[in-house]
Amino acid sequence: MTTLARLVFEGDKEHVASTVKNMIESGKDAQAIVDELIEGMNEVGVRFKSGDMFVPEVLMSADAMHEGIDLVQPLLAGHALRSLGTAIIGTVRGDLHDIGKNLVCMMLESGGFKVIDLGIDVAPEQFVSAVKEHKPAIVGMSALLTTTMMTMKDTVDLLTEEGLRGDIKIVIGGAPVSKSFSAQIGADGYAPDAATAVDVCKSLLS
Amino acid sequence: MRANLVVRESPVLSYLTHDQLDAIHNTTLELLATTGVQILQEEAFELLKAAGAIIMPNNIVKIPELLVKNALQTAPSRIVMSNRLGKRCLFLEPGRSYFGTGSGCPNTIDIYSQKRRRTTREDVANVAKLCDCLSNIDFVMDLGLVEDKYPDLGYIYGFEAMARNTAKPIIASCANGKNAQDIIDMAAVIMGGHDQLREKTLVAIYSEATAPLRHAQDALEKLLVCAKNWVPVIHTIGSLAGASAPVTMAGSLVTGNAEVLSALVIHQLKQPGAPFLHGGTITPIDMKTMVHPYGAPEFHVASACLTEMGRYYGLPVFSTGGCTDAKLFDEQASAEAAYSLLLEALAGGNLIHDIGYIDSGLTADLSTICFSDEMIALIKHIVRPVAVDEEQLALEAAQRVGPGGHFLKDPHTYKHFRNIFSPKLLVRDRYEIWEEKGGQTLGQTVRKKVIELLENHQCEPFSEQVEKSFSDLISSIESRFKN
Known about the structure:
heterodimer, A: Methyltransferase, Methionine Synthase (B12-binding Domains), Chain A, domain 1, Rossmann fold, B: 483 residues, globular
């Protein structure tokens, strides 16, 4: 790994910032810097999958990576940061639980997606207007309560009614949700945890 | 005659001194006064406002010490629940423990096929039936989520299945305030009226805070309905240390405590003296899988600490045991179920629930319930006094038998031998005998027992009069949804 990648891997926000500043001052190419930051994050992903790294460490590294990206961002003005697509994520209507959803947002961002977090208690109508506004590739819904997971179907149906269904992939998650439930309501994918969610989204778009 | 003799009637398990409990309490007060909680239901919000709580934007309410003090003052220190036959049988007082199942599993391990499938209405009936005939199970929760087009009806059918298949006290889950009221009305029909239900409390209602520091609309509705009806409510902590609560034990106890006490304040403002339980579940989020682990030692230590906190406050406590992250009743399941039950029995939590919860609470398993029943019988032989009186010291017997004699025929042995634990399911046969009998594993033995009990047990049915009123009530509830 390059020095910068290693600093991201170690979650060293401070040194990522100072290193990136030095690299910018010495005239290094902006995209090359971004690539090194992502290299560090990719290694984090590998270690996390194999059970050698824990979520708080992953989040620390993601923070460090973003610190670097924020510094480079102005230099990329005019060239959008390479993104795998936009994902709109929310916890469904009537449900306040959001830890899992927040984790998915963070993991998707680290994984190269642009994420729009609609928050909690999101009605089907809100999902629809967000899709119209942001034209995402992915719509992700989360629910913890068995009473609220039924509204996932309402959202799928409303998106279909509005003629938006064909352009997006719908992924769902949450403790009471399952693969069969996802098939039942007409969603495209299901993920049992945040890390898998990133893989599911990537494979749905490939 | 003997003077100044002090004896101990049970082993003692304690994690926290009074001073440490004071510190947790005072930190909770500081959190409630400076950060407050979010209250997402109108009546609860207005009650707090009228009582002098400090209102902040976004439905945040800061709660001063006085409100907490008043609530702790009026809340009852003991709750008694009855079975369907009107017998007062659960005495929720310090150190008195009762055991029961958990609630809401979307999946079940089919006892015949041993395959995992979605839970049905019949599964809830079977859980209740099994618990009805296991003598060490004292109360019942549905252990299964009845899926219905209308979630509220799913809970109605779940309560119905439990009430029909066991006479034991029930802790019911429900969707919201109206659903809670319907279930309370159903229980009242069974007991002969709301006044009778108040005296012979067949049902308690389960609710939950939303960590960190929030109370959702449906949960607060349930809280208020229970207060109004004088039905015990369990407005539990349900937090993940490291995710929705601080990762350290004391920190998670503080935020959980803030959630419970703020609920208590609202509850007692609605109806001073209405019955309320402290307690709940705090477990550290698994930092690799993000799972809510039911076998984590920290979970059960937290339960023991919450039990001590309940005692400190003079409130009955809802505790947890007999559960596991294992995917079926296997070696892990028996280890996790056994140690959690033992720890909570030693701590003395009042309602030790979640027996039969496997797969981190997503799957129900009848074998685990049957195994836990055996474990509880064994545990009752651990959480008991070692009596040291003349009869127990057995000096006369020792003198009688003397060097090289034996005690098997001695009258003292005859008098006391039945007090020794004798297992029903755990094997003690000599190897050859065990082999002859089929060489069964514990899993096989337990499963066979469950099937035998389910196929042969019949619960006492309702009286004709109750049956009519009960069915009529369910029909009228159904028609509200189906029309």
